[in-house]
Specification:
Elements lengths: L1 H23 L9 H26 L7 H18 L4 H24 L5 H19 L12 H8 L1 E3 L7 E3 H19 L1 H11 L1 H6 L4 H27 L11 H11 L11 H20 L8 H36 L1
Antiparallel strand pairs: 1-2
Helix pairs in contact: 1-12, 2-7, 2-10, 2-11, 2-12, 3-4, 3-5, 3-10, 3-11, 4-10, 6-10, 7-8, 8-10, 11-12, 11-13
Length: about 325
């Protein structure tokens, strides 16, 4: 809870700082406009979904660097099937769902059965899935044109708020809320969620206690790739245009940063879904700040993201060291007494 409150405090400070610098000073773009706030909520929801996915993998002590390329594969593949090859909507959606879940299954099997490092497996996936996408699309931009507007409303639509004109809750936020609640219940209220946390804390101890650790690792990668696939669908619905060469580029960094900032330890065994969502919101507010505040050059966006990830990992390590020293000191004091 302390970590959640801490990251929420940082989010609030960055939010207010962006508002002050962009709205109160004359001549700045409007941070608090309805359009910007709705877009900020929408982008937070989209990145929140893929961040929840990678959180499950990080909790097990693994990593997934292929998320952006999975977003690209699914985000380009769906309009390719629907618009170019005229597949029925249910069949196309089932196909991209099967592909994304299959990717997670393959990752999990390679990590558990072949004993390959998650970093290597998913780094190869990062290159492979984007290369495949550029191949079957021939590097041509994919989109829906003026078709499938009802389907695209899953990302572009909004739920109007009563007594509030001109502002509604974007549909991706509704989807994020559903995914977040289900993920939180799974992680905190089911035995499999406890297995994932135990696995991340100590895989050998989890094995000796009777947990099928291979199955749980595979499950984590399937969840991660499945949510990356869902994210790919929603991202392409939102923008209606996907270029295979750069669609989804660096999305894995935003997702990993959100998970780490939200309290997921890269050593595994720790993480909360609410913290991950707040971390995703922080990343999007930071990006919005870079866009709107003239004093911050836009071309250093990735430098800021890298610094945020480094800071999150460093703080996590320092907190763990302090906690370990306190436990050691307390135990020593108890023995002396």
């Amino acid at each position: 809870m302390k970590k959640i409150l801490g990251i929420f405090g940082i989010l609030l400070a960055v939010y207010l700082g962006t508002w002050m610098l962009s709205d109160i000073i004359p001549g700045r773009q409007s941070f608090m406009s309805d359009f910007n706030q709705e877009n900020l909520i929408r982008r937070t929801a989209l990145f929140g979904i893929i961040s929840i996915g990678v959180a499950f993998v990080i909790i097990t002590g693994g990593i997934d660097l292929s998320i952006g390329s999975v977003v690209c594969l699914i985000g380009c593949g769906l309009p390719w099937l629907l618009s170019e090859h005229r597949w029925p909507v249910p069949l196309a959606l089932a196909a991209v769902a099967a592909v994304s879940l299959g990717i997670g299954l393959v990752h999990g099997l390679m990590v558990t059965k072949l004993r390959l490092q998650p970093f290597v497996v998913t780094l190869c996936g990062l290159l492979f899935y984007r290369g495949i996408t550029r191949g079957f699309t021939r590097d041509q931009t994919q989109g829906f044109g003026n078709e499938f507007k009802e389907l695209r409303s899953l990302a572009t639509g909004e739920v109007p708020l009563p007594f509030v004109e001109g502002f509604g809750i974007p549909m991706p936020w509704i989807i994020l809320a559903v995914v977040g609640v289900l993920a939180s219940l799974f992680l905190n209220k089911t035995i499999y969620g406890r297995y994932l946390l135990a696995l991340g804390n100590n895989e050998e101890a989890a094995k000796y206690s009777g947990i099928d650790t291979d199955r749980m690792i595979i499950l984590a990668y399937v969840i991660c790739a499945g949510l990356a696939g869902l994210g790919g669908v929603l991202f392409v619905f939102d923008v209606n245009s996907a270029q295979p060469v750069d669609f989804g580029n660096f999305y894995e960094l935003f997702a990993i940063a959100a998970a780490v900032l939200g309290g997921c330890s890269l050593r595994g065994g720790q993480g909360t879904i609410l913290g991950v969502i707040i971390g995703a919101a922080l990343m999007q507010v930071l990006r919005n700040m870079i866009t709107l505040v003239d004093q911050i050059p836009q071309n250093i966006e990735y430098a800021i993201i890298g610094a945020v990830i480094l800071a999150g990992v460093s703080v996590d390590e320092l907190v763990k060291r302090v906690a370990a020293r306190r436990r050691k000191w307390t135990g020593t004091e108890g023995e002396a007494g």
